[in-house]
Write a structure and sequence with these properties.
With 157 residues, this protein is an all-alpha fold. The chain has six helices and no strands. The longest helix has 33 residues.
């Protein structure tokens, strides 16, 4: 390997490390919301993020002029969508009551601030469908947690 390639490789690694240092916390939070895991125990979210970051690193040299955060978020969303059936278990996270598709749209739209049109293009749905799913997910979250059944009142003697 030539000295030029070595220098370029070190520069690439430094740039990527700086990106990860600045963006990993927010991306991990987004992945945790997607997988509906509690923040204190989120191995699936960590695995999802690691795979998305590995893909971003592999494409790093081709990202010149593109936003690496946006690229990684798209990869995170795509990986989640491809394997969403794994994340439909009760885990105790805040978005646990939503389907994986509702979580994906809600996280992209409200947490990440991605426009409806971009969200629709990213997941391959019409804008109207994204709007309807987002509204349904918001309504579900606003309805509050399901109330546990009450024990029957005992008679006082």
């Amino acid at each position: 390997m030539s000295e030029r390639q070595t220098v370029r490789g070190r520069r690439r690694a430094r740039e990527f490390d700086a990106f990860v240092a600045g963006a990993a916390g927010r991306l991990l939070h987004a992945a945790t919301l997607l997988t509906a895991e509690p923040p204190s125990s989120n191995p699936q979210a960590q695995q999802l993020l690691t795979a998305a970051l590995a893909h971003t690193y592999a494409e790093w040299d081709r990202l010149r002029g593109e936003d690496p955060y946006d690229h990684t978020r798209q990869e995170l969303a795509a990986r989640f969508a491809r394997s969403a059936w794994r994340y439909h278990r009760v885990r105790g996270g805040v978005l646990d009551r939503l389907t994986p598709q509702e979580r994906l749209i809600l996280v992209l739209r409200l947490y990440e601030g991605v426009a409806e049109e971009q969200t629709a293009a990213l997941i391959g749905l019409p804008v109207e469908r994204v709007r309807a799913i987002c509204a349904r997910a918001i309504a579900t979250m606003r309805s509050g947690p399901p109330t546990p059944p009450r024990a029957p009142a005992q008679a006082v003697t």
